[in-house]
Every structure is written in structure tokens, then in C-alpha cells.
Design brief:
Elements (H helix, E strand, L loop, with lengths): L1 H10 L5 E3 L6 H14 L6 E6 L17 E6 H18 L6 E3 L6
Antiparallel strand pairs: 1-4, 2-3
């Protein structure tokens, strides 16, 4: 997932600043479905990851800063990354819509 995020940021540097949609925002599901329609489904044992994240204003197709991209990634990595992102939203953004800086860190 790290490589995917870095590649996406190389082609779209403005994606380094994203805005969380907030909890329960229907745009998140819409963004995920838009990316899945273009890039999915993922092979067995993998999941479709999207960048910018579906949970952000910039996610989806069409995205506000360009169409989001998708790539099949190992399911366990995607689950771990998604869990970490939810924790970040809850504790760093207090669960509220807000803008944040994306800094990929290899795990």
C-alpha cells in the first residue's frame, strides 16, 4: 500500500492534503463504488485500495483534484491500513471533517 500511495502522490502532488468526509458520510460509499466500478474487482486474497481515500472529499471519480486511482493490494494490508486510518480520524481529527497531510510511512 505504501508504494501505491507514493506512486499516486508522485502523479498528483496536491493529494498530499486531504479532507476527511466525517463519519457516516454517504460520499464515502459513493467514492468507493466509483473506484470499484473502474478498477475492481480484486483477485482472491486481495482488496481494491483507492487513493485519495474514499473517506475524503478528494476521493472518487470524478475527484475534486482528479480522478481517484485504485489498485489491488493484499487484503490483510488493506485491513490494517484502513484500521489505522480510522484510528487517525477518531483520535487526531476527533471524528470531525477536517483537512490533514498525507505522509506515507512504510510498515
Amino acid at each position: 500500500i505504501y508504494d501505491f500511495d507514493v506512486d499516486a502522490l508522485k502523479t498528483h502532488p496536491l493529494w498530499s492534503m486531504l479532507t476527511y468526509n466525517g463519519p457516516g458520510n454517504p460520499d464515502t460509499s459513493d467514492h468507493r463504488a466509483q473506484v470499484y466500478a473502474k478498477y475492481g474487482p480484486a483477485p482472491a486474497g486481495e482488496q481494491l485500495d483507492e487513493f485519495p481515500y474514499a473517506s475524503t472529499v478528494q476521493g472518487g471519480i470524478p475527484g475534486s483534484l482528479g480522478d481517484a486511482v485504485g489498485r489491488a493490494v493484499p487484503a490483510i494490508q488493506n485491513a490494517a491500513q484502513g484500521g489505522l486510518l480510522l484510528v487517525f480520524y477518531r483520535y487526531s481529527l476527533s471524528g470531525r471533517p477536517d483537512t490533514f497531510l498525507v505522509v506515507p510511512i512504510p510498515l
